[in-house]
Amino acid sequence: MNATFHDLNGASVFITGGGSGIGAALTEGFVAQGAKVAFVDKLDAAALVTEMETKHGTAPLFIQGDITDTKTLQAAITQAADAHGPLNVLVNNAANDMRYDAVDITEDIWDAQQAINFKAYFFACQKAAEVMAPKGSIINYSSITYMMGLAGMTPYVSANAGIMGMTRALAREWGPKGIRVNAIAPGWVLTEKQEKMWATPEAKAAFLQKQCLQEFMQPDDMVGGTLFLASSASAMITGQTIAIDAGVVGTG
């Protein structure tokens, strides 16, 4: 049985990129807790909404839009708060971990990568803080790639290092308002996208050797830690990073 966080029943939750991969697992995780979930995604996620309603008796609010457009992103958060009440939880999850050789990166590539992997995170936090209930929780998805310094992903790695600095700064600034800001740094989670684009048998075998726990990570493995940080069970935790990576890196 999964853990139940009773204070998340009825909570107003907003998730970016909640229609697929880790985001879809998070959407279901919060819906299963009884939360009022809204999520934004660029792609059509109507099938997920139907699945959640059939499975759990509750349909999340799907808002289709591009989070790199700040007006669209912030309007979606406002729509969620209007529908479900002041936000209790924001989960910044949407990201794009494309690979590029550093010598081939153009200004357009750099700006596009920062727009989705970093800029959108800040402006989601900004709007969420405006419409958030007292004692709200913001959870920013970073990545262990910046701790490992992985090659071939410089824009993405740089953005995730920035997310950590932003998380700490906002935790300090908004703590007096009762808003907690934390981050989760996943390891290699084998989403459908990862399996299709990069998870060759050789790459998987090599990465598994870096893990303490010898099991490949799945999107559902990210749910429990996120629910914990969203709930009052973590009431005095802020400005921190939790690596959920089967033991690849250490954060102490």
UniProtKB/TrEMBL annotation:
Ranges of residues in domain Ketoreductase: 11-188
InterPro entries: KR_dom (IPR057326), NAD(P)-bd_dom_sf (IPR036291), SDR_fam (IPR002347)
Alphabetical keyword list: Oxidoreductase
Keyword Cytoplasm: no
GO molecular-function term, one example from the UniProt record: oxidoreductase activity
Gene3D superfamilies: NAD(P)-binding Rossmann-like Domain
Superkingdom of origin: Bacteria
Family of the protein in this entry: Belongs to the short-chain dehydrogenases/reductases (SDR) family.
Name by which UniProt lists this protein: NAD(P)-dependent dehydrogenase (Short-subunit alcohol dehydrogenase family)
